[in-house]
């Protein structure tokens, strides 16, 4: 039995003493738990990505303000160019007095009804051979006028 005691005494001596309080137990538990590890290469990629994100945000913020100013100036310039190109309105054409009678030369113009120069009404018609309305006047309306 004495041998058993010696073995048990050796086992008790090999075991660590219990922690004196809860705080020390927590520290020991954290040391024993496996820590999350990240490889150095992955950490470098994360840092580079973060720096690029921050740098891109700064460039975008500064560039947005400059682009807004330059695009506003371009829009203003384009509007001014278009407004300057648009005519202000039709230039006033001097109008003729509607109560004035203007003479028209009959010489050299084709005349219909030359056989009756003393007719009570004289019609001088101006027309275009390619105009559909002039053609309709000549084929439909003028024969009715000539009959009366």
Please describe what this structure looks like.
This protein is mostly helical and 148 residues long. The protein has four helices and no strands. The model has no long low-confidence stretch (mean pLDDT 77). It has a domain at 38-88. It is rod-shaped. It starts with a helix and ends with a helix. 58% of the residues lie in helices and 0% in strands.
Task: Bin the strand percentage.
Answer: under 5%
Number of helices: 4
Oligomer: single chain
Q: What summary fits the major beta sheet? A: none
Please give the radius of gyration in angstroms: 55 Å
Tell me, what's the shape?
A: rod-shaped
Number of strands: 0
State the end-to-end distance: 160 Å
The helix content is: 55-70%
* Coarse structural class: mainly alpha
N to C succession of SSEs: HHHH
Overall residue-averaged pLDDT value: 77
Low-confidence blocks of residues: none
Supply the key terms:
148 residues; mainly alpha; 4 helices; rod-shaped
Give a quick summary of the entry.
This protein has 148 residues and is mainly alpha-helical. It has helices at residues 2-14, 22-32, 40-85, 132-147.
Task: Compile the SSE list and pairings.
Blueprint lengths: L1 H13 L7 H11 L7 H46 L46 H16 L1
């Amino acid at each position: 039995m004495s041998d058993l005691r010696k073995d048990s005494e050796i086992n008790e001596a090999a075991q660590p003493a219990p922690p004196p309080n809860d705080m020390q137990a927590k520290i020991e538990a954290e040391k024993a738990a496996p820590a999350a590890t990240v490889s150095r290469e992955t950490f470098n990629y994360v840092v580079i990505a973060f720096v690029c994100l921050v740098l891109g945000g700064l460039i975008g913020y500064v560039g947005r303000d400059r682009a807004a100013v330059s695009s506003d100036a371009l829009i203003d310039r384009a509007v001014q160019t278009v407004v300057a190109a648009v005519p202000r309105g039709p230039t006033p054409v001097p109008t003729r007095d509607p109560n004035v009678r203007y003479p028209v030369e009959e010489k050299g113009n084709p005349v219909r009804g030359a056989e009756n120069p003393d007719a009570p009404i004289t019609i001088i018609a101006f027309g275009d051979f390619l105009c559909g309305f002039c053609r309709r006047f000549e084929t439909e309306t003028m024969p009715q006028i000539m009959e009366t």
